[in-house]
Structures are given as structure tokens and as C-alpha cells.
Amino acid sequence: MSRSTRRSAPREANADTDSLVNSLPALTHILTEAAASLQRSGTPPAPNIFALFGGGDEAVLESYLTFAKGRIFLAETHAPSAAAGQKPAGRADAPTQDELDARTIDRLRELVKETQREVPGVNVGLTGQPVLDYDQMVQSQNDATLASVVSLVLCALIFIYGYNETGRPFKATLCLVIGLAYTLAFATLTVGHLNILTIMFVPMLIGLGIDYGVHLITRYEEELRHGKTEEAALVKAMVFTGQGIFTGALTTAGAFLAMWFTNFKGIQEMGLICGGGLLICFVPMMTMLPAMMLRGRQNVIDHRATEDETRARIENIWLQRPVWVLGITAALCVAAAVAARKVRFDYNLIKLQSPSLPSVVFAHKLMQSADKSLLYGVIIADSLTNAVELEAKIKKLPVVADVEPPFYGDFLADQTAKLKLVGEIKQEVAALEFSPPDPRPVDVYELSRTLYGLYGYLGNALEEVGTNEPALTRQLVALRQAIEDLRKTMLAGDASALKEHAQKLAQFQRALFSDLGDTFRFMQNQDNSAPLRVADLPTALHNQFVGLNGKLLLQVYPKDDVWERVNQETFVAALRTVDPDATGTPVQFLEYETMMKDSYVQAAWYSLAAIAIMVFIHFRSLNAVILSLLPVGIGTLWLAGLMGWFNIPVNLANIMTLPLVIGIGVTNGIQILNRFAEERTPGILSRSTGKAVLVSGLTAITGFGSLMLAKHHGLFTLGCLMAMGLATCMIAGLTFLPALLNLLGRWRPLIKQPSADNSPSTPGQEEPR
Length: 769
Hints:
Blueprint: H1 3-8, H2 15-37, H3 51-54, H4 57-62, E1 65-67, E2 72-74, H5 97-118, H6 129-163, H7 167-190, H8 201-225, H9 230-257, H10 265-293, H11 297-304, H12 310-319, H13 322-340, E3 345-346, H14 358-369, E4 377-381, H15 384-395, E5 400-404, H16 408-412, H17 416-429, H18 444-465, H19 470-491, H20 495-524, H21 539-545, E6 552-558, H22 565-578, E7 583-584, H23 585-619, H24 622-645, E8 650-651, H25 657-679, H26 688-705, H27 713-744
Parallel strand pairs: 3-8
Antiparallel strand pairs: 1-2, 4-6, 4-7, 5-6
Helix pairs in contact: 2-19, 6-7, 6-8, 6-26, 7-8, 7-10, 8-9, 8-10, 8-11, 8-26, 9-10, 9-23, 9-25, 13-24, 13-27, 18-19, 22-23, 23-24, 23-25, 24-25, 24-27, 25-26, 25-27, 26-27
């Protein structure tokens, strides 16, 4: 028979040929790994043992959790549980779960670096919910530190530039720093820790706490320029402006303290620390600062200075045209209301984190390459029977991609055939014994000659097989290529390189045979005397899926990305049809996000109510309450319009803007109305009150605006919205409110007429002592 005739003839079914086709990939894989081990630093790992029995790369992939068609491998690990009560050396108390998580993450990152050194070019990283949370907290700490320093420096510079002096701004800044130190002590005593929300309290308090000093110093400066003595000027500032400062402090602190009545613990702590901090910072500003202001060269300068009329000329532009101002304001409100309809709420928590963090980068890679969500729901089964029943119900849900572990059902299946197969395998491998691996270096040249001979035999086999066996032909070609690559790699270099290759090949060989021997000994020791039980699970699986009380864990993976709210709601609703007590990350996110949003809305209503009560107590006038809240309402509407115009969504970080803008923005109206009640004139910007509102507004914008330096996206958007909201409220307070007071004041008095004692002093007239 000619060779061409042999190649065209179809083969008959041959079990030996099938075995050869299935076994050749194992040898190819071993040779490929041997060549790769020569190019790595460190001790070469053994090739995956499943490759020896499962048929090559596919078997290797099946032994790992993979994504992107085998291009991404995922290894799951868990930190120790704090419930175990582990105590590190030198500590009598057990570490918290956060400490254990942090310790585990740091150690895993060390291993990642070691892997990158050993395997240059490998793309390896660490992610997962605990890692994301840990990185978010670390990033927030760095952002808070940067924002605090920048905020303090910029607020001091604004103060100095606005007043053309350094003495009083420095004194106010010193009192602020003392107040911040007191607040840190207060936070330690009351809460004892900081979270992702409360860690930003320092830059917030810098921007808000400096306002007390701004208003007090500005009024003191004005009275000195009107000819009053230092003591008389200070009394005037403390009595009249001090009332507005005190009410403003109460309203802003009330906006924070109202958060204590919500149901979300993190928001409660935020409200307590920031609200308490504002009241604490008020104390040194109204005690230490006045005493320090009585001394200084600037007092002499202010006695000789005259008022700058520039602000008065600017303010007259809208004071003389109140109808135009109200019309423009109304038009802007209508435009803002139309744009505000585009504002949406984004619940996605991962979008709040810094996109440059490695854990976030790898999380996005996995999300983009996975055919199922990385976050999973959890259902607890009381027994193995219950677990199998629940698993069957869960798999019928259209939103479910997978359920782990997959082996619960196998425990209840008839294991007779499996036990028989295990027994047969034990008999087959019982006589196998493995000699200790050869410790000597490999003879590179001898191995090369052996491989070369095998290469030739494989070539003869290829000629013999021809096209009759396509699968076998492919395997033979792959094996020849692996041999060629290994020979080229191990013979490359000088004598020193060949010596190193000999050592590495010996290490690889020892690792391979040690792994192989352990595998066969494991098979020899299998117990097939009784059916498998839950207790027979490997330790790693038992610890992950079986509780201390014997309950079993079911991990339910959704098909869609449950970071997104719509997918999250659909998945959780479906999961609860199987078990109303289902939990897991998607369920926790749904409850957490809902509670957090509702808590901030609730806090906004509480703030509004508390502020209205305090303003009413201060002015004893319902008109004053409405007028003081008008700039806040207009400014908030303008803010919503800007958000719609620039397509900025509300998220679970910047929703804090809602109660804060109300509490902070209303102070402008209080100060303006307080001065209006004192002097019965709507001209504010030309007086110290208008200047103080402008400067304090800029410092508050700077304090919150410093958060825009944060890499954490949630804090960045919070700083952005707070800066815009405070700016819009300040503009409305300095333009719309004086114009409205000027227009309405022509008809009838709006606020109680001040007594004779409260009448303003004219320039050069000293208050009676």
C-alpha cells in the first residue's frame, strides 16, 4: 500500500490512539512550563497537576475561576475572622475585623509585589469589597489631610487679602486651630473613631468656623472707623453682630445635629462631630479672640481709616433697581427649574471611588470581562437537604447566573458507582511508589540530546500519521514545538547561564515529582468505605461554606452588574422570593443606599424645622423666618439647575449637600436681617455685614471647595456641589434679599423696630459709656 493511500484511508476507532491524543498535551505542558521556569527568577513552581490528567490548557483553566475566556485568573482569599479572638503579640485585646482585613490586605500586596518581581511583565492585582473599602478609607485620609492644609492656608490668605492686614486674621486662625483641637478631643470622647464621612470634618470646620471671626472682626473694624474706642467698638460688635453670629452658629450646628435623629449610624456620627465642633469652635472665637483684638497696631490704623465707598457704588446698581433684580431672579429660577429636571440620583457606589486606585482598576477589568456579577447574594440553609432544594429553586430564577458551591447536590446522589470507581483507582495506584527526586543538577547537554532524539521520533510519527488523525497531528506538532523551544532556551547563553539553567531545571523536576507523588498518595489514601459527608470537604471549602453551627452557605451570583441600582433591585426581589432573609453584598447595598438617601432627606427636613424655630426665636417674626430662608431656597434651586446643566448627578456622597446648604446658607440671611433690624436700611454690602458675608462666604466655599482636590470621586463631587451651593446662596443673599427688603420696606416695616439703644452710631460719634 502506498503512503498516499494510507493517508487518505479513514482510521478505525482505536482506544490507544485516543489515549495518546489525550496524554500528549500533558507532556507538552510540562515542557512548556520547564522552558518558562528558566526565564523566571526564584524557585520554579510545579506545573498544574490537573494538566497531567485533564488534557492540557483546558484542564488548567477549569481548575481556576477565570474570566475573559481564560485570559484573567481569579484566586479568592479571606481574612481571618475577628470572632476567632486572635491576639497579636504585645496586645491583650483581640484585633477588630478592620484591623485583620488591613493586615491581610497589606500582606497580600507584599505577595503581589514578590510575584511581579519573580515574573516580570505579569499583570497581577488585588481587588474585592474589603480591599475597595480599605483603599477608600486610606484614600480619604490622604484627601482629608491635603484638603485640611489647603483649606487652612487659603482661608487665612482670603482673610488677609480681604482686610489688608495679618494681625487679626492670624489671631482668628489661631483661635480656629484651638477650636479644631478641642473638636478632635470631643470626637475622641463621644464617638472614638472616624469613618468615610466624618474624616472630612476638619476642612469643613475650617471653612465654617472662621466665619465667626470674620463677622466679629469686620464689625469691630467698622466701629473703630466710626470713632469708637476699642472697648466700645468691641461691645457693639459683641452685642449686635454677636447675636447674629450666635444664631448662625446654632442654625449651622443644628443642620448637622439634626442628622443625629436619622437611622444611619455614619450620618449620626457625622452630625454629632461636625455640629458639636461648630459649637466648640464658637467658644474660643467669642472669648479668646475678643481679648486678643483689644491689642494690636491695627487698632490705631483703623481709627484713622475711612470707609471704602466702592462696595456702596456696586450695591446701588441693584438696590436702585429692585424690580429688575426680582425679575432677573425669577427668570433664573424658572430656567434652573427646567434644567433641574435632568438631575438624577446615581446609587452606584463604585463610581464614588478614585478611578486610579489599583483595586478599582482591577474591579472594572473583572466587571467588563465577567459573564456574571462579582458580587453575590447569600442564602443560609439549615441542612444538606434544604440546601439542595434551595439550589434548585435559585437556578430557576432568570436573573441568576450561577450558584456556588456546586457540590451540594452530589452528596445526595447515589454514590455507589462513584465509590466503586474510587476503589478501582485505589487498586490501580496502590502499588505505585515514587523514589525521592534526584537532587543533582540536570545535565543540560544530555537532556538536549534526549529531547533531540524524541524530536526526531515525533517527526517520523507525523509522517506515518499524515492526515488520517487530525487531532493527533496537532498534538504531535505542538509537542515538537515545545521541545524545540525548551532546547533553544536551555542552551542559550554562556557557561554561567548553562550552569544556572541546570540548577533551575533540577528545581523544576523536583517540584514536579513532589507534586505528582503527593497526588498519587492522596488517591491511595482515599476512603471509599462510606458515602461522602459534609465533614469530608477539604478544609478550605469547609471553612468557606459550612458554619460553626453546621448551616450551609449558598452564594448566588447575578447575571447583571448589581452595582447598578435597577439590576440590584431586580436581583434582590427575585432572591427574596426564595428566601425573605437572603443577605449578601447586593442586599446590603440596597438597604444601605436606601437608608442613607432617606436619612439625608430626613436630616434636611429636620434641619429646616430646627432652623426655622431658631430664626423665629431670634427675630420673633414669621416674616424674618421667610426672608432668611428665601436666599437658601433660591440658591438651592440655582444649584439644582447648574447640576442639570452640567449633568452632575446626585450620589450617596454629595447628597450631604442638601441639609448642609440649608444650615450654612441661612446664616447669610440671618446676618443681613440682623443688620437690617438694627439700622433699618437695606444697604448691606457697603457695611461691615456685607463685607463679612462676602468674605465668610468665600472662606466657606474654600473650605468645602478644597475637597475638590480629593481623588475620591464622591468627596470631589461633594466639594464641587457645596462650593456651588454656597456661592449661589451667597449671591442670592447679597443681591436678591437687599433688593427685596428695599422694595418691601417702602410699604411697611418687616421686622421689629430697634430701640433707641440699638440705633447706629454715626461716624465720629462715640457710644455713651
